Amino acid sequence: MRAKILLTLTIILMFSLATAFGVGFIKYLVRPGDRLFNIIRDYNLRISTVLDLNCISDPRQLEPGEFIYLPTGDGFFYEVQYGDSIDYIARLFFALAEHIMVANNLSCNSYIYPGQSLFIPLDSINVCGNANPGTQFTWPVYGKISSEFGWRKDPFTGASTFHSGMDIAVQKDAPVFAAKDGTVIEAQENGGYGLNIIIQHYDGTKTRYAHLNRISVYVGQRVLRGELIGRVGETGRATGPHLHFEIVDSNDQCRDPRSYLTGANYMYVRREIETLGVGGR
Prior knowledge:
Elements (H helix, E strand, L loop, with lengths): L1 H19 L4 E5 L6 H7 L4 H8 L12 E5 L3 E5 L6 H7 L4 H7 L13 E5 L22 E4 L2 E4 L6 E4 L2 E4 L5 E3 L4 E8 L5 E7 L4 E10 L6 E2 L4 E5 L9 E7 L5 E2 L12 E5 L2 E5 L2
Antiparallel strand pairs: 1-2, 3-4, 5-8, 6-7, 8-15, 9-14, 10-11, 10-13, 11-12, 12-14, 12-15, 15-16, 17-18
């Protein structure tokens, strides 16, 4: 109960700050017979937007009498952390800095501070995502590779163990995106993986996104490549905030994600007229 109260107060604070930048919200009272899918249709919102903001685990089970929060514009919120810049936040969302500045009434001389809540419009997200033309996979998060696929020294025991995915280090609550179109087949806590999501793709491959702090999708949901599905955390067996990312082939064999993604220096690709501006790790 205490955790729920703190979460509610946090959401109210986030939206109060966002309103100062021109982004409002609606505090919606759930009535008997309400379904979240009908609510988001009436307010022209994406399901993940509402799941992310309200930490709803099952969109099929709304309780009459509870409140949910709906933004007046479709998109996501990001809490500024120490050392962040607008350019860096744009990279986290594979967005353009100028789009975020416009959405939050910021100028080149504006100061952003830790704890400040910024609104990231949905239509600006992943405009700088870069798909591998051969596999159609994109990077699920913008960060630094901290552990590769294959044999390594276990960070807890020191023994040599096989690492079935790639670890990408980035701060807690950074956005995580679907690497390819597919259907969510798991969205829950799973042992050492902590909070994790598995997406089944139409070519028979699967992807896993583990150690999350927040899940913003539900089992059975169809997602598109580049759609926000959760937030980075350190749940489960983790030594710090990062995303554990796995790719499993159609024979249920884990594969090196580097074989499916573009080079790490091409995580973020800004498309200009007749040119590409490339960002690295």
